[in-house]
Amino acid sequence: MAKQITVFLENRPGRIQTISRILKEKGLNILAFSIQDRGEFGLMKMIVDKPDEAQLALADRGMACALKEVFAVTAADQPGNLEMLTTALAENNINIKDAYGFVSTADKRGICYLEVENPQNVDVGRLIAEHGFTLIADKDLYDL
Predict the structure, then answer these.
(1) What whole-number distance in Å separates Cα of residue 133 and Cα of residue 113?
(2) pLDDT over 90 (residue 104)
(3) What pLDDT score was predicted for residue 95?
(4) Dihedral angle computed from the Cα positions of residues 55, 57, 103 and 37, in that order, rounded to the nearest 10 degrees
(5) Closest Cα partner for 89 from 107, 112, 67?
(6) Best exposed site among 8, 34, 42, 74 by fewest CB in 10 Å?
(7) What is the pLDDT of residues 33-45, one digit of tens each?
(8) Is 62 helix (H, G, I), strand (E, B) or coil?
């Protein structure tokens, strides 16, 4: 499974720039990110090429951050794919707690990062494969 870094930060100018600079100084590449406004504070969620090194670099600079495993799912970019994926998950009582995604312009594939609640321990990899989706292996994800 992919590792996502979540950074808790004060919601003020320059905080995202500070995180970006720390990762740049360590030669780490941000592959995807989302930023959520939570009032005076916010969350920056990232997929980076070396998540363990990124967490250490940010923690060493006093950032409150955590690693969490998420599914990295890919499929051809075509209308209806998100509906098909979410239907497969919902029909198996798998709740999507958090998600974000994008389309790679290089190969026109959609990539989606999902944090799920899976109370019945359904084999998510098997389930999504049955619906035409692919879990991205870590080595492939971090080489994007």
Answers:
(1) 13
(2) no
(3) 97
(4) 70
(5) 112
(6) 8
(7) 999 998 999 999 9
(8) coil
Cα–Cα distances (Å) from 107 to 26, 27, 55, 70, 128, in that order, read: 28, 25, 29, 22, 20
SS in 3 state form for 112-143?
EEEEEECCCCCCHHHHHHHCCCEECCHHHHCC
Considering the entire predicted model, what is its pTM?
Answer: 0.88
User: Is residue 117 within 8 Å of residue 137, measured between CB atoms?
Assistant: no
What pLDDT is recorded for position 125?
93
Can you tell me the distance from the alpha carbon of 55 to that of 76, in angstroms, rounded to the nearest whole number?
31
- Residue 124: what pLDDT? 94
Q: Identify the CA nearest to 141 among candidates 73, 78, 93.
A: 73
Q: What's the token pair of residue 113?
A: 């990062």
Strand-pairing partners, residue 114, are 71, 99
Does residue 61 contact residue 32 with C-beta atoms inside 8 Å?
no
Structure tokens at 111: 């990539």
- Per-residue confidence band for 144, with pLDDT thresholds at 50, 70 and 90: low
